Each structure stands twice: as structure tokens, then as C-alpha cells.
Amino acid sequence: MSSQPPHPALLIPGPIEFDDAVLQSMSHYSESHVGAPFVSTFGDVLSNLRKLFQTTDPASQPFVLSGSGTLGWDQVAANLTEPGDEALVLHTGYFADSFADCFETYGVKATQLKAAIGDRPQLDEVEKALREKKYKVLTVTHVDTSTGVLSELKALSELVHRVSPDTLVVVDGVCSVGGEEIKFDEWKLDVVLTATQKAIGCPAGLSVLMASGRAIEVFKARKTRPNSYFGSWKNWLPSKTDSLYTYLPQSNRLAVMQNYEAKKASYFATPSPQLIHALDTALKQILSRPLDQRFADHRNASQTVKKAIANLGLKQLATKPENQANTMTAIVLPEGVTPPDVVPSLLKKGVVFAGGLHKEIASKYIRLGHMGVSVTDPDRSDLTKAIDALRESLAEIGQA
Ligand SMILES: Cc1ncc(COP(=O)(O)O)c(C=O)c1O
């Protein structure tokens, strides 16, 4: 029995429903952000992130910064690219437009490779683009939250390494990490960035990023200073031997992330102890079971939802099964029905769906998230409730 006050089940594609223990971790008494107990918790978070991302390479570097998923884009643009560099942005919806805009903010030229709505750029198109120009980074949205399109990372990364080996493979995993399988080392990814409020199941407010040793080397080889302050890795990583930092006094040459992981106090900017506690609990819960089981739970829940949607006579935006995310579903509404015709009625039945987000078709579809405790907690019936509510809401407007 949940200790949370009764509330509609939040089934938008993030933030999601939270486990009681995760929420309760946030009511931790105040403690020093450089005191041993908190530093130890932060250290656990960083080493557990390595497990979640399935990396054992000591050169990989996890970052946890106060901020939202968007801060991950800023970290990539500010630290791994320099003004004048080129980025190839694979477009599967709204979030690629925003990532491209972020690059442009930092003076980086972003070329978008677009697919039809509900589809993803094909490997032969990516290969052609990579052969035409030298790109410093390629970015891909693992699950595009605006369309429910899933991108295939393994084959994509293999292609990039074969055709353009110097190009860094950057994954926006905001709507995937914790729900979709990611093998950071095995798939030779360079950056996976995410946020806490989706499949990780922790309140919003932390930007989580894993960088490969190769990405860190690219960062260290920069000719120019990162054009961000808070998000600059020079403030979060060690720098004693690095010429980039010689202008800083020795005492300021920081190793914040490594120190935390080694459970040594360190400071650059004050972290949020309460959020770090919540993330610690969420990660320990996730890792208490084999990750494969967690990913299988998300796949199974997704299949159940998608079958139920089809039984209601509805289609998905992502039409090809291999393009369909396991963490969410973008549901196309019957002709003439718009999100305001159903979303308020769904809310009255105790479930919160999201409206459309892709600007060209926003009025034609709704989105349902299926991540975290709504999928893994056998005592919850959020998804059954969501499907029943959708059936009833459509019937009420003569659509079932
Ligand atoms: C795929 C994707 N990338 C990036 C973001 C931005 O994350 P945030 O809203 O936490 O800044 C989101 C947010 O929903 C997202 O779904």
C-alpha cells in the first residue's frame, strides 16, 4: 500500500510515478555536501551508474550534475565540440531539433538527417552523410519522446566506427536509460546522456551522463576553453597534467567526480543531497535485480500496451515494430479526434496521458509512458487502468 496521497497515475513519458522509498529518501535531514556520509552516497551513485550503463572500462567517466536532461546537451556541445565543428544530428522528432539548436548556440554547425514522422534515418543514409563530410559528433535520440521512435544503437555505432572512426557517437538516452537496454562498452558508445525523472524513476533535477575514455581524450585535446562554466568538465575532472588548466591555481584544479567516486570530499558547485539520496535509492532498487529482467519487463509491458492499442483499432506513430520504443507509445487518435477530446476524460478516470508533441501532427495523437514502477511493481495496475480508461473515453465520444 503506497504511502503517497491518492492521485491520478502519472503515465506521461516522464516524469513517471515514483516508488515510496525513492520519495522518502528525499526527506533526509540536512547534511554537509562535503561530509563523509553524503560523499559516500554520491560515490555509490557514480559506481552504480557504471553498472546501469554496463561499462567496466575505468576510462569511462560518469557525471551527475544538478540540472535536467537538457544540461546533457549543453555538456556535449560545450565540452566535445568547438565553434566551427560539425555535428550530424539524426532526427526522429522534436528532441533532435532541440539538440541541433543547442549545438548552434555553441557555434557548432548542426546538420539534421531527417526521417518521415514515425520512422528513423536508415543506416545507408547515415553512411552516405558520414562519407560526405567529417563530423566531430553524431547524435541519436535513443527513444524520441515526441514520436515513440526507438533507434537502434548497436548497428549505428558499428557503422560510425567503420565509416568515420573519429566521429564520437552521442546518445540522447533521456527517455530510454533504465528502460531500454544500453551496453555502453560493448556498443562502443562515447556519450549517453539522460535525466532522472523517466525510466530511472527518480524525481527530476539531475543531469546524468556517461562519457567514454575516447570522449574524455577529445575533451582534453580541445584548443579552446569550453564555453560554459557550470557545465564545463574542466571544473569537474582532474587536470593536474593537463595543459588546458595551467592558468588555474593548483588548488582549483579539481577532480570532483573522481573524488566523489573514491569517497573523498570535493567541491565545485553545491550538489543537491536530497536528490542524490533519491537517485541512490532508485539505482539500488534497479540493480537489486538483473538488468536483463528489467529490460524484459519493459519490453513485455510495451507489447501488452501495443496489442491493446491495436485491439482498440488504433495505430502508433511508429509503424514498424523495430522502430517502436519499449518505454512509451505514441497513439494516433481516430480521424477527427484531438487530444483535448480524450486527455481530460482520461484524467477524470485517474490516469494522466500526454498530448502530442511533434509540431507537425501534435493535434492527432497522445502519448502513454510505460516505465519504472508502473511496469515493474506487480502491486500496481497503472497500465491496465490506462487501457481501460482509454477504451471508455473513446466509447464516450462514440469512437469505440
Ligand atoms: C529524448 C529527450 N531528450 C531531452 C529531453 C530534455 O530533458 P529535460 O526536459 O529533463 O531537460 C527530453 C525531455 O523530455 C527528452 O524526452
UniProtKB/TrEMBL annotation:
Q: Which cofactor does it need?
A: pyridoxal 5'-phosphate
- What are the record keywords, sorted? Aminotransferase, Pyridoxal phosphate, Transferase
* Residue span, Aminotransferase class V domain: 21-219
* SUPFAM superfamilies recorded: PLP-dependent transferases (SSF53383)
Question: What is the uppermost EC class here?
Answer: transferase
Q: Which family does it belong to?
A: Belongs to the class-V pyridoxal-phosphate-dependent aminotransferase family.
Protein name per the record? alanine--glyoxylate transaminase
